[in-house]
Amino acid sequence: MRDDVVGQDSSIISHPTVWKASGHVDHFTDPMVDCKKCKGRWRADQMDSKECPHGGSHELTEPQKFNLMFRTFVGAVEDAASVAYLRPETCQPMFVNFKQIQLVSRQKVPFGIAQIGKAFRNEVNPRNFIFRSREFEQMEMEFFVKPGDAKKWFDFWVQQRFDWYKGLGIRPDKLRLRPHGKDELAHYASMAVDVEYEFPFGWQELEGIAHRGAFDLTQHQQFSGKDLSYFDDAAKEHFVPEVIEPSAGVDRTLLMLLVDAYDVEQIVDEESKKSEERVIMHLSPIVAPIQVGVFPLSKKLGEPAQKLEKALRSEFRTFYDESGAIGRRYRRQDEVGTPFCITVDFQTETDRAVTIRDRDTMSQDRVALDQVSRVLKEKMAAWQRLPNKGTGLAA
Ligand code: GAP
User: Fold this and answer.
1) CB–CB of 193/177 below 8 Å?
2) Which of 49, 61, 205, 361 could form a disulfide with 194 if both were Cys (CB 3.0 to 4.6 A apart)?
3) Last residue of one domain, picked from the residues 257, 284, 311
4) Quick one: DSSP state of residue 329?
5) The domain spanning residue 361 has which CATH number?
6) Is 75 inside a domain boundary?
């Protein structure tokens, strides 16, 4: 949505020297210890004691560096000269392509290059559903700035990114910013802040915003022998830009959305008036897979209801359902997080109006058919996250 950010979609396998220059071949490692007796392998920096978790009498090796990059071979021969790597982050090709992209997009520093795509890491302990996996999706942006301006842009992007998560409808008390200590900074960063969410398994990183300085462009310049400096027309000077990088995980964002939205409430059913359990996903209309459910009260009203659903399709993510009691249909949409459901009933033909039911409050409004689209847009814009009322995972 910004004038000063352009996109790219790069290859997953790049020249191995790219990963040498970036520091990943030498530094992208976890310290591992092996147990000589049970053959177990453990992350040395995540162990509570110096003993094998399978038994104190077991003997552990000294920590060894284990590289997290997936290796492959390019071409017909599998030898050291044909080794290549699947990208462990999407950002390096944005540095490598910096100059071409800047030239063809005619952007001036400060500007950003952004990319969404798969990244691969041979994680030793993939766990917590899709929180840590070996194949995952990243959204990254490299924002190139004039040296000296970097701290200002770093603070700007930290705030922007924090606000972005809040804008997804996440409960604000479950989000926080955590600056990195000097001892935990990645090899390329001089400053970093994580956006964290309080998952049921504790506070965890969703995204890191890093001040990478001129590290990457300088490294690629050196290893490729190509000039990656920028000429500032106004100041008539050459410089290698510094970089601020917001780096986010799509999978972690999705897991957060599911965990944060899930709730189990005790309610009185709208139709039967009996007390029952309601599973509800309080998803924001921005991210809800279905934004509007459309139901005919009876199958006899299928035709006008389908006509309405088709008319709304170009503006909203819609779903048509005519099977089962209306209360069951509401409940199914509550479970998948549909914020609004429209019911076409026997009065619709005469009063040219339908009922719009709100997922979170279960209140219903009668709305004229020709106003449905406008009212839905207003309701979506005004939507606010209510606190969980029941026993949701993250309650
Ligand atoms: N270019 C910088 C970079 O890659 P990172 O902190 O290693 O930084 C950025 O990764 C984001 O990618 C993390 O905040 C996280 O959301 C996501 N991520 C990293 N490793 C992951 C994994 N194994 N599974 C799922 N997401 C992962």
Assistant:
1) yes
2) 205
3) 257
4) H
5) 3.40.50.800
6) yes
Binning pLDDT at 50, 70 and 90, where does residue 43 land? Answer: confident
pLDDT over 90 (residue 99)? yes
Pocket test for ligand 1, best of 115, 141, 194, 252 (most atoms within 8 A of CB): 252
pLDDT in tens, 373-393: 999 999 999 999 988 888 877
pLDDT number for residue 395: 42
What would the pLDDT profile of 122-167 be if each residue is shown by its tens digit? 998 898 999 999 999 999 999 999 999 999 999 999 999 999 999 9
Residue tagged 């504790």 (tokens): 202
Provide the pLDDT for residue 172: 93
Q: How many whole angstroms from 306 Cα to the centroid of ligand 1?
A: 43
Same domain, 13 and 78: yes
Shared domain for 188 and 325, answered yes or no, is no
**Pairing assessment for the beta strands 5-7 and 364-368 based on DSSP bridges:** unpaired
Is pLDDT at 240 greater than 70 in this prediction?
yes
Expressed in angstroms and rounded, the spacing between residue 202 Cα and the centre of ligand 1 is: 17
Cα separation of 166 and 172, whole Å?
6
Residues 250 and 277 in one domain: no
Please give the distance, rounded to the nearest whole angstrom, from the Cα atom of residue 109 to the centre of ligand 1: 26
- Report the Cα 354 to chain-centroid distance in Å: 36
- Copy the structure tokens of residue 88: 């462990």
